[in-house]
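Writing this down once: the sequence line spells out the residues, with the fold written below as integer tokens. This is how one looks:
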Amino acid sequence: MLKSICIRDFALIENVSLDWHSGLNVLTGETGAGKSIVFDAINIVLGAKCASSNIRHGASKATIEAVFEPQSVVWAWLKQNELIEQDVSDKEIVVTREITTSGSRSRINGTMVNVATIQELRNLLLTFHVQHEIRTLFAGNTKLSMLDAIGDKKHQQSVEKYATVFTRYQSVKRQARELEMDEEERLRKLDFSRFQLNELVQADLQDEGEWDELEKEKVRLANLASIERAVFTSMSLLFDGPESSGDEKAAYDSVCEALRELERATRFDQSVEECTGILQTVLAQLDDAAKILRRTRESLDADPKRLDQIEDRLHLLSTIKKKYGPALSDAVLRRDKLSEEVDQLENNMDHVSSLKQQTEDLLQECMQIASKITSARKVLAAELSKQVSHELKELGMEKSQFKMEVEILEDLNANGLDKVDFYFSANPGQPLQPLAKVASGGELSRVILALKVVFARFDQVGTIIFDEIDAGTSGSVLQRIRDKLSQLASSHQILCITHQPLIASVADNHVMVHKVQSDNSTQVNFQNLTGQDKLKALATMASGSEKDSAMAFAQSLMNEAKNIKSSMGHI
């Protein structure tokens, strides 16, 4: 279950920590007070989309931290995903999400995870019913997913296998369609692809460094005379080469003579010994310089045609880069792709024939799996219809009819061959019609509550969240919803936003939400109510005041709630 949530700089909330109890937790407050912000925060910390606009005005980031006490199935999942070191059941898990102007980061127990992982965990921890869910609930894919979710492991495996095979079927079918072209078009493409491939093959492309190496060699060859003059002059000056005059000593000879003089002086004055060592080092470095200059001189005899060859090669590579680049590596990739394309075009008919056969085989496999899934879905739909109908009777709709109908489509799609819809009739003698068209707001609330109760038995999540499930209801209907929520709270943690004192009266944890406004700011505050404070809140919810009559009514609600909870084993 959800134990606590800490929200910082999110929407209108500056900093708040809320503790949640087992059983029924309700949030109450005036319309617009900020109750839904808490549910938005829970939704976002568990992977829902968020934007930088969620950050409180004036803050640089928003942080949401939720602490859960999970069931054994969650610990097994955490271990499987290497998010805990060992399978233990006496610890909490902490899920955090930090929202900045540049994006968001999610963590489970301090380990950064992606959104897909968080959403997978969410499905194990809790289920949401929020006001906008009525629209998504009636989407075809949503209803199919709901139905498949209550199937056994064998059914789940069939659904997963179908998804894999159908994806492969679509891919192969698309490849066959793309290759199936008329002969004139095939020959035109083949001729052009061959031309490009031959051009790239003849270019004999090397790695990306070839261009730079050629440019360096080009510069060297273009300045060969200057290099040669510098080498010969240096050799002459340093080592008494052919260009030195007879009256001048080479640098090497001068250093040698200086070293001999200093070595003689060292016998009389040790202070010049350090200079002797320096000159010895200079001589060694001059020897190294001589070797380098000789090698350079020997390499100066270049092929006079080499510069022209380099210019031609650079021109060719420049043309290739313009046509297939911008980099040579892009041209290499294009060459390899063209090679595959030419092979396909040359053997087009064989490829098409092979792909068509694969398409037919995959289609038959899809049909077999889809047929098996359809049969299982019909059984699941019948069982779901039976259980939802039972729950509706307990919610005061004894004469209503509910049916989840599985219709078979003509063509395959990503979900198989099936279309699922909810059919409903509130009164005897009225035919079943699509739920979305005939149910009133109060009836929809009860149908959704019934569905949630049924699915809570199958998905085994610890927490169910309702956002105004009682909207549009009153009287005996509202009492039935109260009783059903109280009953569900005996086995699940329930978080519920309500404006109804009747619902709030059975809460195990009552949180009042206040919006505090000043000239320069707006904040949302939360208060856990107990005792007299809770009684006053119920009175205010019922009549807008704390008069004696309102307080008496609130007390009667509390007394009735105590009896209801006692009969269900809450107390």
